[in-house]
Amino acid sequence: MERSGRVHHTAVIDPTARLAEGVTVAPYAIIHAGVEIGPGTKILEHTVLGGPAVIGSNCRIGPGAYVGTPPQHLRYKEDAGNPSYLIIGDNVTIREGARVHRATKPGKENATRIGDRCFLMGAIHVAHDCVLGSDVIMADGALLGGHCAIGSHAFLGGGCTLHQFTRVGRYAIISGNEAISQDVPPFAAARYGRLKGYNAIACRRAGFSREAVNAIRGSYYRMRLNRLTGDAVAAIQRDFPDSREANEIVDFIAASKRGILPSRWRRAVDADLSEVNDE
Predict the structure, then answer these.
(1) What's the pLDDT tens digit per position in 164-190?
(2) Cα angle at 80 between 74 and 81, to 5 degrees?
(3) Of 104, 88, 106, which Cα lies nearest the Cα of 35?
(4) Which H or E run contains 245?
């Protein structure tokens, strides 16, 4: 174990844990066996790191976070010879009171995963077997059930809860205090239990082209216009056949097992597609 960083004398660190150069461990932190920490990472006061867990470089965890602890699953059996894992990328922030659990299945290939540059705020919960892409933001108190998959650049509002096995596409946003039990497609904005449209702010900040934004807006307008998902998909494929973003939405819908969060439906007689196509 490399101790060239600053390790407080009250910290409890298993001698088999591996700390890279420049790791800082604050008072009363506990680091169990099987934990690997990359260079420049800071483990703050009263944080508990369970293992096996692989934590990247320049992360900030705590204070009082519980990361890499065993999954909360009735059928999980601890097996020291064939353990389950948590893998965290680089430049990840996990704030106070957060809980991130290892997977239920053994092996790094089945690990709970947190991508690079994720920002997980206070009191969030990432359950077993979840996979988060890069640049995901979870606001205070957001809760993920087991096996959730969150796409890169998604934003989960404070206090929202996601049912196990739910998927959220990249650049999607979920409003605070939402209870989500169906999939939220890429670029979507979810509020009041429905898809209210697309995530305009994220698309603008990401620098998407005008053509891409028009295809995204148009796709969600057609989802709002058509009551049946199949009819909406057919309309998207017909009107935006060459759009990579529209095809991403369609492919996400096709792969859904829990179904897609319903859109706020609008009668065709009230529709004016020119407001989408002419921009």
Answers:
(1) 999 999 999 999 999 999 999 999 999
(2) 120
(3) 88
(4) helix 244-254
